[in-house]
Amino acid sequence: MAAKLKVLIDLNLILDTLQKREPFYAFSARVLACAETGAVEGTVAAHTMTTLFYLVAKDQSAEQARVTLTELLQFLSVAAVDGTTIEGALNLPYRDFEDAVQMMAAVQASAQYLVTRNVRDYRAGPLPALQPAELLALV
Fold first, then answer.
1. Tens of pLDDT, residues 28-56
2. CA dihedral in degrees (129, 132, 137, 138; nearest 10)?
3. What is the DSSP letter of 55?
C-alpha cells in the first residue's frame, strides 16, 4: 500500500470552502474532505491560521473564529513557521513573500505538494504546487 500523501493546503482553499466561493467551492471542499477523511494528510502553515482567525472574526465574530479553527484542527496539522522557514523563504525567487513562507512551511513539514489555486505563484518552488483538481486525481 502506498504511503499517504502529505499536502500543505493554501488559505485560498479554506476560504473557498468556508465562503462557498464559486466556481472554486466544489474542488476546494473535496480537498478538505480528503484531509478530514484521512485520504491525505493535510497541513496548513501557522500563519494561515492567524490570517484565517482575523478574517473570520472580522466577518463574523471572534467566537466563530475560534470555533472554525478548532474544527479545522480536528483534521489538519499546523506546519511551523520559524526562523528557518523565514530564512528559507527569503532565499526563494518569489515576488510575494507570503507565498515563499507557505512554500518553505510545506518543505519543512515534509509535504509532497502544496495545494493552491495559484500554482503560477509557486512555479519556482522546491515542491510541486497542484490545483485542487490535480490533487484529487492523485488521491
1. 999 999 999 999 999 999 999 999 999 99
2. 50
3. H
The Cα–Cα gap between 25 and 113 comes to: 20
The count of structural domains within the chain is 1
Q: Specify the CATH number for the domain of residue 86.
A: 3.40.50.1010
Question: In which residue are the cell numbers 489555486 written?
Answer: 117
**DSSP character for 5?**
P
Among 111, 109, 35, smallest CA distance to 78 is for 109
Helix, strand, coil percentages in the chain from 3-state DSSP, rounded to 5: 55, 15, 30
Sheet arrangement for strand 76-79: 76-79, 41-45, 6-9, 113-115, 129-130
| Predicted structure pTM score | 0.94
